[in-house]
Amino acid sequence: MSEAKPQDGSTVKGYRELSYGEIGKMNQFKDLSRQFIKLLREQMGDIPPGIDTWEAQEWIRQAEFDMKRACMAACRAVARPDADC
Which of 9, 13, 32, 61 has the fewest CB atoms within 10 Å, measured from its CB? Predict the structure, then answer.
C-alpha cells in the first residue's frame, strides 16, 4: 500500500492544519486498524471443520468493515473537518 502524501490542511477544503501530535495519533489509529484487519484475515484460514464457513467468513468481513469505519471515525475525531464535508 502506498503512503499518502502529507497534507498541511490548507490544500484540502474543509480541513485545518494538523499538529505533529494529531498526525501521530491518526497514524496510531491506522496502525491499530491494520493490525486488527491482518489478524482477522489470518483467522479466515483458521476456521475449524464443522463450522458454517460462509457464516464465519461473513462475520469476519463485517468485523473488517466495522474496523475500517471505526478508524475513519477516530481520524475524523482527531482532524475535526468542517461539519459539511
Answer: 13
Distance CA 74, CA 29 (A): 7
Write the DSSP string, 27-74.
HHHHHHHHHHHHHHHHHHTTPPTTS-HHHHHHHHHHHHHHHHHHHHHH
Q: In 10 A of CB 41, how many CB atoms?
A: 11
Give me the amino acid identity at 57.
Q
- Sign of the dihedral defined by the CA atoms of residues 1, 71, 84, 7, in that order: negative
Integer-rounded Cα Rg, in Å, for the chain is 17
Q: In this structure, what C-alpha cell is assigned to residue 34?
A: 491494520
pTM for the structure as a whole? 0.76
